[in-house]
Write a structure and sequence with these properties.
mainly alpha, 0% strand, 6 helices, 115 residues
């Protein structure tokens, strides 16, 4: 579900990708509508870099992302598969195994590529 990102979303994106300069996807020319797809596809060099970026988040910000993933407003559709696995592992470590399972279930049932 596309959304207009709010100030908290932009703050989280800035933590994950301090090098970002524009709220627009260079590939599509459209404004980002989620946080994780641009980090996975445009900023993180690889899975390890994606993990390091995610670990910068507070548990509160990670929970915020999980809540938005589960309500469908944060897309995982274009996030690299290995990055989703990294996210799920971190959610299991920092929030709960139940939350990690919920994110996995949501990801498994979705297939829409949105940014």
């Amino acid at each position: 579900m596309p959304r207009e990102m709010n100030s908290r979303d932009w703050e989280i994106l800035k933590v994950l990708a301090p090098e970002y300069e524009s709220p627009t996807c260079a590939g599509s020319g459209h404004a980002f509508q989620s946080i994780l797809p641009p980090v996975s596809n445009h900023f993180a060099a690889d899975e390890r870099d994606f993990e390091e970026r995610l670990r910068r988040l507070s548990t509160e910000d990670l929970q915020y992302l999980v809540d938005h993933i589960l309500d469908g407003s944060e897309s995982l559709g274009c996030v690299q598969e290995e990055d989703v696995e990294t996210l799920i592992t971190l959610v299991g470590e920092r929030i709960s195994h139940e939350a990690a399972q919920s994110v996995f279930s949501y990801y498994s049932s979705s297939g829409v590529c949105e940014q």
